[in-house]
Amino acid sequence: MTTTEFLSSLKSRGAIIYPPATKRDIELSNNALQSRRCAMFPAVLIELYRFASAINIGNGYIFSPIEIPRDARFPIPSIMDINMPLGNIPALRGKTVFGRNDLFWFAFDAFGTFYMLDNLNLRILRKYDDPYRAMYDCLIAGKF
Amino acid sequence: MQLSQDAAEKRIAELRMDDLPLEQIYPKPHPVAPDWFQKYHELVRQFTTTLTDSIQELAFMNLPQQDFIDLVMGRRMPENLSVRFRVPLVWGGKLEIDNLFMCMTFPHSHNMDRFIIEQAGNESVWLPNPAKKIYIPANMGNSGDGGNATEDRFSQLAAQISTSHGME
Q1: Of A5, A62, A141, B101, which has fewest CB within 10 angstroms of its CB?
Q2: ipTM of predicted assembly, 2 dp
Q3: Using the beta-carbon criterion (under 8 Å), do A76 and B106 form an inter-chain contact?
Q4: CA–CA–CA angle B49, B53, B56 (5° rounding)
């Protein structure tokens, strides 16, 4: 699957796709992740951010390198906003949380492996070889 | 580290939800039915259709009218709203409407997740258990564009929707 096919599939399911992040935003965010010993963006996510920053379906979210303002609503936090307060949680060591819905959190590690995590204790529930599958599960599980 | 009630209340206050009631449970793994996910989605939909009795709280959420209608008709979850279990299924919570509540995804539901995750591995866990079906912190309840006009408008809409559902 390509990024455009992935986004097209999400659009047909009612996803809100926010405008792409700039190269500089991606680099700054990646550097900030590295300095906090989180996993840096895998290539597939960098490619995605060239087409879309945050993605939202229902209560499913893929986080962006930048905070996404939403009129009167609380903004969608940036990936750094999400990960900075989690630095002291052992289960997340070496991982970066990139998405969530009401039941699960989603993360990747430095090897580009994607994970579904239990939102009660961050236990690994599923390991993904296909990052698009992980992002799809994150968003579609949040669809009402 | 095991949290005392004082420590749990202090932590939830740090997460800016100091009026959120907490309930202490001793988590023991419970089997979950294989079809729980489908049932969960249907239950969330049913739960949202019962929110016509929570107009005051919905008015403070600044929902556009169409979002309000979609929510209480069970059609669609508006942006930034989450439905949570009071007691998670894997810890013995039931797949029942009484075991659900709604709140804003950011910052509240996400911070509730953090609050629970920080207690992982403890013998007992403090869980958010708001008194009403919708949790809005008191520090948000007195501000925003809600208020009587919104409440009156939503009340009228809710009455129409309830009538169309044969709920009156």
Answers
A1: A5
A2: 0.94
A3: yes
A4: 120
